[in-house]
Amino acid sequence: MSDVNSRISSIIGDNDVVLFMKGTPLFPQCGFSSRAVAILDHCGVSYESVDVLQDMEIRQGIKAFSDWPTIPQLYVKGEFVGGSDIMMEMFEAGELQQMLDEQQVAKAES
């Protein structure tokens, strides 16, 4: 396993919910990342974010790691969920909140 893959695996393994995104939750750098942050914030869960613009190895590596060509990418309990479109579809159908509840993901601190 390459160094970048082991770094990605470690990040995903150490956190219940990880969002690989462009920018940060406070300052997203694209509309898709902004939408993904808004969805997670609305769900009220605690999550780790990784700004792929700060690390080109991660930016390219995460695409190969998940076999998914776009960013943002959401992982819950080590499983790849999808990008912002899939997150939005799942959120609107109530499936994302249900999955987060079933996985007993920690709630965000108020």
What does this entry look like structurally?
- Helix content is 49%, strand content 15%.
- A hairpin with a 2-residue loop joins strand 3 (73-76) and strand 4.
- With 110 residues, the chain is of the alpha+beta class.
- The chain is built from five helices and four strands.
- It has a four-stranded mixed beta sheet, sandwiched between helices.
Which terms would index this structure?
single chain, 110 residues, alpha+beta, 49% helix, 15% strand
Task: Write a compact overview of the structure shown.
The chain is α+β, with helices and mostly antiparallel strands. It has five helices and four strands; from the N terminus they run αβαβαββαα.
Q: In this structure, how is the largest beta sheet organized?
A: 4 strands, mixed
- The helix/strand series, from N terminus to C terminus, equals HEHEHEEHH
CATH superfamily: Glutaredoxin
What is the number of E strands? 4
Oligomer: single chain
Helix content: 40-55%
Structural class by secondary-structure content: alpha+beta
Q: Termini, distance in Å?
A: 38 Å
Number of helices: 5
Keywords: 2Fe-2S, Iron, Iron-sulfur, Metal-binding, Redox-active center
Protein name: Glutaredoxin
InterPro entries: Glutaredoxin, GRX_PICOT-like, Monothiol_GRX, Monothiol_GRX-rel, Thioredoxin-like_sf
Domain Glutaredoxin: 17-81
Task: Please describe the topology of this protein.
Layout: H1 3-14, E1 17-21, H2 31-43, E2 48-51, H3 56-66, E3 73-76, E4 79-82, H4 84-93, H5 95-102
Helix pairs in contact: 1-3, 2-4
